[in-house]
Amino acid sequence: MTDVGALRTDHSIRRFIMGDLDHSGGSDPAFAHDSVMLAEITEVLAEVPDGYVVDATLGGAGHADALLAANDGIALVGLDQDQMALDAAGARLAPHGDRVTLRHRRFDGLAEELRSLGINEVSGVLFDLGVSSPQLDIAARGFSFRNDGPLDMRMDQTASTTAADLVNGLEERALESLLRRNADESHARRIARAVVAARPIESTAELADIVRDAVPAAARRKGGHPARRTFQALRIEVNRELEILDDAVHQAIDLLAPAGRCAVLSYHSGEDRIVKRRFRDAAGEAPPPRPDLPPPPGYEAEVRLLWRGARTPDAAEVDRNPRAEAAKFRAVEKLPIDDSKAA
User: Fold this and answer.
1) Residue 52: HSE in the Cβ half-sphere, 13 Å Cα cutoff
2) Which domain holds residue 206?
3) Kind and range of the H or E element at 176?
4) Residue range 284-300, pLDDT digits in tens
5) In sequence order, what are the residues at sequence separation of 6 or more whose Cβ sits closer than 8 angstroms to the Cβ of residue 27?
6) How many domains does the chain have?
7) Is 118 exposed, middle or buried (0-12, 13-18, 19+ CB in 10 A)?
8) Does any domain span residue 146?
9) In-domain check, residue 302
10) Nearest to 230 by CA among 286, 190, 274
11) 150 in a domain, yes or no?
């Protein structure tokens, strides 16, 4: 696509979100998803220059659909490693025609995929991390402790490693370490010991019961289901979510055109720490614990933080969609090129 038209940043953003614009798009109801912080994300990315915006975690395309409707000046490249999500997104985004390009790709392949499309810079990149509602709700995907299914948890169904491989194959110490590293699980040792003793474990319901019984009775009465953190830790490991995030955000920042924006929505403290550190580094800020000192050599600003800290969903959104409660939203804007330094 060559000419993507003029930027539109009027009240269409709010009209779209409130339902005045038709955005059903015929998407697959099996992949219906309540997009988190839709208004905030749309407004941030509707202000980017004309060009390409990348939704690096396309999912059901709620954010992508809103962005395309709100801004006539952008074309969208959507990436997702989940083919089910891509199929649903393709149906939903079909009314936008050739403004949309979809690719089956994990987000750490962002730069390579764009190069293959002949795209050298972009106006915006969005990461909506974590697991989507459809992935949780479809028992056969194996993501949820609430639905009995196979121990799978692969977002990319062509990937080789499943949750069953980890549950039944890791040594006890390695499993304990995984639970601590990916979920801050305080009962990691007890859970790992119980899991190893119960092998082979074949289903999500079986694993959830084993974890529940391994956790002390007093701890079961608070903080939700005792298996929640174990399932989170396994999902993160299966999909290498924390491992690939820092490099992916770094790629996104490098690809931004001046005034382009990178926005990240995270749901896990480990994800948010990685994003916060990468954004601060790119903004030229000295790393903790001495932010009062001048930046060390090499810390030259590429971006500016659009706000301090992380934004979170308001109470009304959390009431409507409890899964949004853990969300944290951060964004940066690429600074103009300093021609004097380039010379």
Assistant:
1) 24
2) 160-238
3) helix 172-183
4) 986 655 666 666 666 68
5) 60, 61, 88, 89, 91, 92
6) 2
7) exposed
8) no
9) yes
10) 190
11) no
